[in-house]
Amino acid sequence: MAKSQPHAVHGATLSRRERQIMDILYRRGRATAGEVMDQLAGDPSYSTVRTQLRVLEDKGHVRHEEEGLRYVYMPAVPRHAARKSALRHLVDTFFDGSAEKIVAAVLGGESARLTDEELTRIAELVAKARKEGKR
């Protein structure tokens, strides 16, 4: 069984379809192109899914193992690391790298309907960050 070498994630942003594929791989842990295709909406072709998996592999998000004649794909980085990278990209792109601006966006506006419990947990996170000297 040959293994592909994982690549470093280059901070490349993912398209909507690539995010859907990554969600499938994170949920399943590992899957063939056919298994991914079966779970995608819109009836993509097998060759399209294989191409998208290869692109994700080139971007460093996915790796594969050969099992006989099949390629079995899996995430190359843990979900928490991918989440952190995506969040950093979001903050840099839309909020000028400012944690304050993103928190203000989440807490402000009509769409922010946080419960008292959520606000308490957020306040506790802020207090903990202050105590630990993190910014």
Task: Give an overview in words.
- With 135 residues, the chain is mainly alpha-helical.
- The protein has 2 domains: 16-78, Arc Repressor Mutant, subunit A (Orthogonal Bundle), CATH 1.10.10; 95-132.
- The protein has helices at residues 16-28, 33-39, 46-58, 79-94, 99-107, 116-132; strands spanning 31-32, 62-67, 70-75.
- β2 (62-67) and β3 form a beta hairpin.
- The longest helix has 17 residues, at 116-132.
Break the fold down into its secondary structure elements and pairings:
Blueprint: H1 16-28, E1 31-32, H2 33-39, H3 46-58, E2 62-67, E3 70-75, H4 79-94, H5 99-107, H6 116-132
Antiparallel strand pairs: 1-3, 2-3
Helix pairs in contact: 2-3
**Tell me, what is the CATH class of the largest domain?**
Mainly Alpha
Helix content: 55-70%
Largest sheet: 3 strands, antiparallel
What structural category do the secondary elements indicate? mainly alpha
In short:
By secondary structure, this protein is mainly alpha-helical.
Please describe the structure with a list of short key phrases separated by commas or semicolons.
single chain, mainly alpha, 135 residues
